[in-house]
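Archive entry: two folds, one per protein. Generate the first.
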Amino acid sequence: MLPEPRRPPRPATLPSAFCAVVAERRLLQNLAYRLLGSARVAEHAVRETYVRWYTMPDDEQGDIDSPVTWLVGTLVRICVDLLESSAPRVGGQTVDQAGCSRLASPSPRRWSAWRDVPKL
């Protein structure tokens, strides 16, 4: 039996824009999960962050020196909003929209200091 001919190797580098988007999305998902404690709610927060970024006018996007910093700041504000408006607590547990119970998040008063942080 003859060995199968090898395919030519793929280029070792991916487009830099693609790599940057994947890296920042992973960063945002990890941060949101750590803040919210739910992968599903974290994914919602990351999507909302990207919606705000891509619906922003081009001239405003151009004024931002570090898009990753803007995305992280916006994501943190979205997560704080979600924590402050979380579902009612029952017996120390929070029931999210999917009906899954998880430990109750910290008191919203703890997150109120984040509201005063200037936008980046």
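Generate the second and append.
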Amino acid sequence: MVDVVKAAQIAAYFLWKNFGQMPSWKLMLLMYFAEREFLLQHGERLTGGCMAAMRHGPVLLEIYDFIEFPGRNPGWSIWISGQANGKLSSPKIEDVDPQKPLEVFDDLSRAEVQILEAVFARYERLTHWESGDLMLMKKYAPEWDAPKGSTSPLSLRFILMSHGKNEQEANGIIRHIQEMDLVRDSLRALF
């Protein structure tokens, strides 16, 4: 299950890094890359979003829905504003002190911000044309293939192994994630 507040704060963080606004397609890609990098480096999910392949690249399905159907989730809408000219913005970033961004993005850890910084630095210049180039997309996301239909799920195992993890490492990470999901579900049931 996706952590909506964390996902919204990650989106707002990327918007803040990009001077307050960004095309929705780029934000969706950055969020996917951040989720994937956190998985690869820490063996855990960042937002818990469902990773999937769509025609023009990989996405987190819930983030796609939040962006395409604004206002349906208040936890997202507090942080992210609609699409003026195809661009998203965040009303919360006006309060960000560049020296202390975690005061505003208080659901993010330092380790998470390090991943966001690295992803932004690597992909900030990605253009719309490049994102539509299937050969370039395979370079950025070797786990991605254009689906036959509108979407195709990307398995964690396939993602991990596409980026150099062996089967034993991938199985250990997946087992850990499943255990953490059970703990989170149990805690949610208590509250």
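Annotation attached to the second fold: The mean pLDDT is 92. DSSP finds nine helices and six strands in the chain.
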